[in-house]
Amino acid sequence: MRYFRYAFLGTLGAILISISLANRDFVTLKLMPDALAELLGFNASVALPLFVVVLGGIVAGLVIGFVWEWMREYKHRREAAEKAREVRKLEREVGKLKTEKHQGKDEVLALLEEAR
């Protein structure tokens, strides 16, 4: 299974490198359309290679998706934490009740009774 993962990662790396080498031409990214920039009086632009724009868009989409999913699953994580706290509380209570039940008895008899 490890070799399949390495083969997949190697193939993915080769594909990304070939895409990057094939798309090295510079493109200009503008903050706003020209008409709106003239109206407001400013426009920010940057020239980047096309592969940086494409791969950056993919990375930004993944990050936004992961953050969105993390925020969406918050209620499930909170509920699981509450259940875990409740389980720990009940386990402590059961242990306390067992010690109270066997208090004053012989230890061997208490162990035998507990094993049943």
From TrEMBL:
Sequence ranges assigned to domain Lipopolysaccharide assembly protein A in this UniProt record: 44-94
Cellular component GO terms, alphabetical: plasma membrane
Chain coiled-coil ranges: 80-107
Keyword Transmembrane found: yes
Residue stretches spanning the membrane: 46-68
InterPro entries linked to this entry: LapA_dom
Pfam families the record matches: LapA_dom
Keyword field: Cell membrane, Coiled coil, Membrane, Transmembrane, Transmembrane helix
The name this protein goes by in its record: LapA family protein
Lineage: Bacteria, Pseudomonadati, Pseudomonadota, Alphaproteobacteria, Rhodobacterales
